Amino acid sequence: MASFEEKTSGPDSEQTSETGPGLEERVALLESERDEAVDHLKRVAADFDNYRKRAARDQASLVARAHERLVKELLPVLDNLERALEAGEQTEEAKLAEGVALVARELREALEREGLVEIETDGKFDPHVHEALLTQPSEAEEGSVIEVLQKGYRLGDRVLRPARVVISQGSG
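Above: the chain sequence. Below: its structure as tokens.
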């Protein structure tokens, strides 16, 4: 009968000692490949997330542009209705003025629901939201708005149309 030392130091023990480091290298190689694949999947997931966010931003921008175009086209209609109201007040046509006032109010409310806001024209001239068409001497402080020739509007944070105004040169 062979001793324990003979059994462990036989030809099989040499094979396991040769394949032992080979297995460790193979396991290390497979772990490295796995780590690279996981990193690659994480990068792909991050790229997809960035794409999804960019697509959502682009969609929101497209919708905002569509709203802007529609509202911009409707502004002259609102201007003409307001002019008709002013003319109707000077005549005895109360029914006409009442009907036009109703249409103007409904149109204004619809545009406000879409985010339209009239630009304030009280106070100092602001070149970001006002367009100065004339300057006139007046008792008002120099650089202040004294008359609005055409109302200006914002849609969200964008100026759709600047307010066209007359500004004061001051007294003199």
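The two ends are 129 Å apart (CA to CA).
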